[in-house]
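name: query_chain
kind: protein
chains: 1
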Amino acid sequence: MTTELPTPATRPAPGTLTFSAPRRGKAPQHLADLDLAGRRKAWAGELGVPGFRADQVSRHYFERLVADPEQMTDLPGAGRAELVGTLLPELLTPVRTLSADDGATLKQVHRLHDGAMVESVLMRYPGRVTMCISSQAGCGMNCPFCATGQQGLTRNLSTAEIVEQVVAAARALRHGELGTGTAVEGGHDASAEQSVEQALRVSNVVFMGMGEALANYRRAVDAIRRLVDPAPGGLGMSARGITMSTVGLVPAIDKLAGEGIPVTLALSLHAPDDELRDELVPINTRWKVDEALDAARRYFDTTGRRVSIEYALIKDINDHAWRADLLGEKLNARGRGWVHVNPIPLNPTPGSKWTASRRGVEQQFVERLLAHGIPTTVRDTRGSEIDGACGQLAAVTD
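structure:
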């Protein structure tokens, strides 16, 4: 593994989009890159070991969250370390862990095999543990209010690099590294209401970390399959606990709808009119607001899963009452009961000229949407003081 950091991606010019990730050395192949049938075939054919060993090592990794060969005593002692090292190469090297919200939020910074950096965030809520994961190092979508978008795109993550973020977080849970956040919960110990099983597993995963996951489509979808496949194939999570966020890659939204995996779609809209969205979300120059909303509605029609509309509220930019009305009208024009809006107070990023909306303006925006009959919930902004909230992830370690 190299110890040198990669050359940072060049800060993109305003409005430019990057779909093709720069070519870099491939990540080492890991068992999570393959489904269980693929592991059995590859290991038996290429490594000369019985296919059932795939099941054994997979159970250690996905059920026991173990990667240490010394703990895999059901494998033959001779050559065990070499075999496990081949099947479970180190993909993420911990660089830094930051804590917020009375220990209930952890941001983990990881270095990849080539020195690229990614971040993930683990959050405990009453009755669940949610994780925000990255699908790319950097991002090519270039939204000007997002620290990741301003960083540019370094490269796509492999399927296993995405999955390993969740496995690493699950290990952290088992080791008691995530606090109960009693101060966040108003002095109430949330863990007391959780079963031991709930307290020790990641129940919800959101693809809202670094990167546009649908621009790394095949690897992101394969990662979802590893998360939902029952052991020993994967972690056995519920697909309904997984959310795929996108700025609006319309063909990829339609493709995802046909995958047969009932994950939630979250569309990062941020403006209901093309003039403003062209500036805030440059992908809008490719697929306009109405095209993105039409694709979101088709996703609901195909999957039956209610779509979330993400809307970062920016002071005096997109928080006008008439924009709330326009958003409500556009959503209702596509029917009722298919969508939910999450306004998000803008989180500060270095050098940004924009700030969050005033509280009263935020409340008025919500009330206008509710008046249109649109279910609306202001998003909780966890981890902003450790640059771990929406739009703040940039893998800065100094």
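note: The two ends are 21 Å apart (CA to CA).
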